[in-house]
């Protein structure tokens, strides 16, 4: 088990080292291309993956998890099951990649961070170390429980934008395709950032495929984002031109990163493909 894990690890590395981060910049309009940051697999990302393989080696733990999961799945959503079992940890960016995206140094400090749809807070942690106060939102109650455990304040999803707080950074990672009203969230982000310095970091899985897990019968969002095109390049461009810019944002940087999730009995890890934008309100918009 351990051995084959290691072999697959190097195969994956060899095959995907560049694929996971690759964007065909020749297919981007010039003004979009200028904002693209090229990343690569770094030590922290490798460490996360290695940890996934090590965990998969705990064969009996895995059987325990899978059994428990199939029993619990009868009456709980998948997100809640993963939260309860402390499985399904996510990885979006390393510390080094985050600093590059935000254009900050190690000793940079901000006041308020808000991470929307923070999940179990694993990705929040990467941002939290740079802020005095950390706020989060979550609809899943088991995830809220994990966030409380980590010491993060949880704000009501209808109250974080009521004007009583302003945020130097708002994280909105892998949420816009999983929530019912993504436009409402984008507009709220726009008005809740600290004037002059506030930025938001948005991650979206491409190909764009909205799916609402909680409180929805057909799992389709009430608000539809107009993301056009088929390829990663086309959809990333459309997200900028048809969603972010019309909402009054300018894009500082964007990149492509693997969205990694700790695996289960079948696989050591799962990978989706994120486009990650750093945006701020337009100067006079
Ligand atoms: C795919 S997870 C992303 C978790 C984490 N941000 C990450 O990047 O790994 C999406 C999360 O958003 C939560 N969610 C869905 N709609 C929400 C909303 N309107 N407000 C806050 N959280 C929401 C879900 O419960 C889920 O935990
Ligand atoms: C706004 O939300 C905050 C945090 O959830 C809450 O404490 C405060 O009372 C709310 N203010 C108003 C005016 O509703």
From TrEMBL:
Keywords: Signal. The lineage of its organism: Eukaryota, Metazoa, Spiralia, Lophotrochozoa, Mollusca. SUPFAM superfamilies: S-adenosyl-L-methionine-dependent methyltransferases. This is Methyltransferase-like protein 9. It comes from Tegillarca granosa (Malaysian cockle). Residues 1-25 form the signal peptide. Pfam families: DREV. The keyword DNA damage does not apply. InterPro entries: METL9, SAM-dependent_MTases_sf.
